[in-house]
Amino acid sequence: MTFFLLICLLFGSRVSAQVAATPPMGWNSYNCFGSAVHEDEVKANADYMADHLKQYGWEYVVVDFLWSYDNPPGSNIGNPFQLRLQDGSYVPWLTMDKWGRLTPQPNKFPSAFGGNGFKPLGDYIHSKGLKFGIHVMRGIPRQAVWAKSPVKGTNGITADMVADTNSKCPWMNHMYGLDMKKPGAQEYLNSLLELYASWGVDFIKVDDLSRPYSNAEVEGYQKAIQQCGRPVVLSLSPGETPVAQAAHATKYANMWRMADDFWDNWKEILHMFDYAKSWEGVGGPGHWPDCDMIQIGKLSKRGPVGEERFSRFTQDEEITHMTFWSIFQSPLMLGGNLPENRDFELKLFTNDEVIAVNQKGAHPKQLYKKDGAMIWYSQIPGSKDLYVAFFNIGDDDKSVSLNFRDLGLKGKVTVRDLWKKQDVGQFSSSYQQKINKHGAALFKLSPKN
C-alpha cells in the first residue's frame, strides 16, 4: 500500500486534507429506516446527537437513499424498480425539478414543499451545531432522460445527450450513468452540487460508484464539489472498492467503502478484518477506507434487512465492533435509531478515550493474527505512546498476549485500559489479558523512558 501512497504524494491530491481531516463521525438513516425515513425522524436523531453525542465529536446527520420517492405510510420498500408506461414515462415518478435533478419528496419531507428542497432541514441540523449529509445515486435519472430535461449551465444540452444508457445500476433501475466525455455531463454534476450547496449539504454519499469503480464519474463529482463553493465530504459506496484503485480513491474521495453492506453478523466482522488488512497503510487526513456503518442500537425499523430489532451482536461483539472501527480509523457512522439507545449503547458512543483512538491515532497496522487472537496498533503523533487493540476472534475465552519488543518498546511500559478508563499498571517485557470469546480490549501503552 505504500506504493499507492507514494504515487499520491508524487502527483498530488485533489481532495483537501482539511475536509475529513479526521475520520467523519455521524449518523446515517439507512440501517434503521431503509428508504422510508421521514423528516421528523431525521430531526429526532439530530436532536439526540446534539444533546448526547456532539460533545464527543459526532456531527454528521445523513439522509440515506430514495428521499425523492414517496414511500406509502408504513412502507418498508427497499428499492422499487421503475416501470415504463405506454408513452415511455416511468412509474413510480421520482420528485424532480425542471433541470433533471431529484428533490426531496414533500410527503416524507414536508419542509421541502414549494421547491424548498432540503434547505429547511439542513438549516435545522445546522442550528444544532451539526452537519448535514445526503445519499445520492450515481448518474442521471432515467426519467430525466425520457423527459429530455435541459442541463443547467449549458446551451441546449439535454439529459438524453449526456447519459450513458448502457451504464446501469444492477439493483435499482432509476438512473443511467453519465458519459463524462460528452459535453454537458460535467455541467450536470456541477448543477447537482450547486443545488446541494444551496441546501447546506456538507456530505454526499454517492452510491453505485465503487463496484464497478467509475473513475471518470468519481473525478466528476470531486470537480463539481470544488466549484460549488462549499466544503463537502465525498463518500463512495458501496464496496468492494478495488484495492487496485487505492491511488485514485485517495486522490479524489474522502472515504470509500471497502466491503459491501455490513450487518450485525459475527462472520461479517471477521471478513472486515481481512478487508482492512488489504487496505492497511492507505488511510490518512482527507481520505479514509470505510468499514461501513456501525450496527449497534435499534435497527431495521422499516427494513432493509430483517425484522425490527436491537443489534444481534452480543455486548462483547459490540465492543469488538467499536474497537476495530476505532483502531483502524474507519469513519464512524452510527446506524441505529439514536433515540432508542439504551445505557450500554450510549456508553459505547461516548467514551472519549476510545474515540481519541479513531480521531488522533495514525498509521494503524496489524501486528499479528493467529490462533484465534489478533492485535492491531497505531501511533500517536508527537508521542512515543501507542494505541493497541487486543481481539479474541475465537469461539472460546482466551488470553491474548503482547511482547513489547514486537512494537519496539523497551523498559517499563504503563498500560491504560481505554474502555475502563483506568491504568492497569506498569510492565517490563510483555502484557497479556484474558478476553471473552468474540471480545476485545483497547489500550494506550506509554513507555516510561
**Can you count the beta strands?**
23
Largest sheet: 8 strands, parallel
CATH architecture of the largest domain: Alpha-Beta Barrel
CATH superfamily of the largest domain: Aldolase class I
- CATH class category of the largest domain: Alpha Beta
Mean pLDDT: 94
Proportion in helices = 25-40%
Strand order of the largest sheet: 12-11-10-9-5-2-1-15
Per DSSP, what share of the residues sits in E-state strands of 2 or more residues?
Answer: 15-25%
Number of domains: 2
Sequence stretches where pLDDT stays below 50 over 5 or more residues: 1-13
**SSE-based structural type:** alpha/beta
Shape: elongated
CATH topology of the largest domain: TIM Barrel
Signal peptide: 1-20
Keywords: Disulfide bond, Glycosidase, Hydrolase, Signal
Pfam families: Melibiase_2, Melibiase_C
Family: Belongs to the glycosyl hydrolase 27 family.
Draw up the topology in text:
Blueprint: H1 2-11, E1 25-28, H2 30-33, H3 39-53, E2 60-63, E3 83-84, E4 90-91, H4 119-127, E5 131-137, E6 140-141, H5 142-147, E7 163-168, E8 175-178, H6 185-199, E9 203-207, H7 215-227, E10 233-236, H8 246-252, E11 255-257, H9 266-278, E12 288-290, E13 298-299, E14 309-310, H10 315-327, E15 332-334, H11 343-349, H12 352-360, E16 362-370, E17 373-379, E18 386-392, E19 398-403, E20 413-417, E21 422-427, E22 430-435, E23 440-447
Parallel strand pairs: 1-2, 1-15, 2-5, 5-9, 9-10, 10-11, 11-12
Antiparallel strand pairs: 3-4, 6-8, 7-8, 13-14, 16-17, 17-18, 18-23, 19-22, 20-21, 20-23
Helix pairs in contact: 1-8, 6-7, 10-12
Protein name: Alpha-galactosidase
Organism: Mucilaginibacter rubeus
Domain Alpha galactosidase C-terminal: 375-445
